[in-house]
Predict the 3D structure of the following.
Amino acid sequence: MAAHEGRERTTGELIAAITGRMPGRNLHSRVLWELGVAIVRGDYAEGEILPSDVELQQRFSVSRTVLREALKTLAAKGMIEARARIGTRVLPRKRWNLFDADVLAWHFETGPDLGFLASLAEIRIGVELEAAGLAAQRRSEADAAALVACAGRLGEARSAEQFARTDLEFHRAVADASRNPFMVSISALVELALTAMFTISSPMEDEAAMAATVLAHGRIADAIARRDPDAARTAMRAVISEGFGRAAARMGGEGEPT
């Protein structure tokens, strides 16, 4: 991984750098990030009561106001719940908002398992296939030209981060061309899922994989340009499955999302 301020960047920092969502550097952001990562990592198990406010204030060297703000943010994400005379309890994982960009980033910071990656690929299939199909039906001439050009720029990338940013641009453009505001709104999930796959295994690590990925994106762009929704969906499924398969192989697993 690339160096960052004299040290190796964490997965979360790489994701933030690629997506353009750089994490805040104020005290609230630091406490939120460290507590979020600790909860996702299992340092505080589901149902466990967090340390008292006084203990947490001392640990992070922050005021009660800063700590309370971070805890409120975690509560809004469905991760914790404060109860009078009991304390702040970690909620079951099924209550967590996995569509939240921070919660997803924390999962990748702690190292997701293959099942989590498969679930992400499945939700991408559910969303992006239909986005591609709608884009084929609704795209403008400008949309089609932009997608074809973006697919071409993938082959010109000279670094894994440059490739990932161009790939994100492509998938955002597909969502935009769908003319469905919900597809656009859910793009944060898609971006993090896609970027996280790159932090595990980039196609640029292998010349054949790189060529195949560029060609596959070209098929999506071509199908959308030809207004062929079925072909666009098929091509999008292939891209998502290939990305998952590459990451799964790096993690020692196999198979593809259903």
About this structure: The chain has two domains: 3-95, 113-250.
